Amino acid sequence: MTQPLAAALRRRGHEALVATRGGTDVEQVLAEFVAAAQGADVVVPHSNAGRFAPAVAEQVGARLVCLDSLLPGEEPDPGWTDVLRSKELADGLLAPWSTWWPREDVDAVVGEHWALLTTDEPRVPLRLLLEQPPAPEDWLTRRSGYIAFGDTYAEQAALAEANGWEVRRLDGGHLHLLTAPDDVADVLLDVVAGLAH
User: Rounded to 10 degrees, what is the CA torsion of 168, 39, 143, 48?
Assistant: First the structure.
């Protein structure tokens, strides 16, 4: 679902690679992200990938700009953990993300992009969402960026802002990078430019 944003960045003359995740534990996923990010100037995680991003950025020597994402070190909310457990199927993997809510609720977030959202939708084990990836000790005080879409991750954006990150807020849902990729690309490039000074 990050392909539209990558395409928007390419139209603006920037290289953009979308990392895929196939591992089933934290160590495998981190290794895959690091391998995909080799040579990158900026690591741009969305959603759950934000928990891995400071470690990835450090290992490849890149800057970090989070898009409406979780951050490392946050303890799983017990209520949310219960929701996740209810989505675990007999094969030990979670049901596809798009099935966790009523179709009309997901449609309200993704608009006409349902097919793009659900094509090759990853299924992961519950433990992957509950285990904490490693992070550099000083990751939060490093100059980074955070772009929030609406208030889904308001606490994370506030934490980033309190620690001197370049923070922007866009009106939109959690999948704003899918539904408004050009808007997100413009703000992302502005944040990256700000981090360069």
Answer: 60
What is the rounded CA–CA span in Å between residue 35 and residue 50?
16
Range of the structural domain that residue 125 is part of? 3-195
Alpha carbons 110 and 36: distance in angstroms, whole number: 26
Classify each residue of 114-149 as buried b or exposed e, where b means 16 or more C-beta atoms within 10 Å of its C-beta: eeebeeeeeebbeebbeeebebeeebbeeebbbbbb
Question: What are the tens digits of pLDDT across the range 30-88?
Answer: 999 999 999 999 999 999 899 999 999 999 999 999 999 999 987 767 888 898 899 99
Number of structural domains the chain divides into = 1
Residue 178 near residue 110, CB atoms below 8 Å:
yes
Longest dimension (CA), the chain: 51
CATH number of 26's domain: 3.40.50.1820
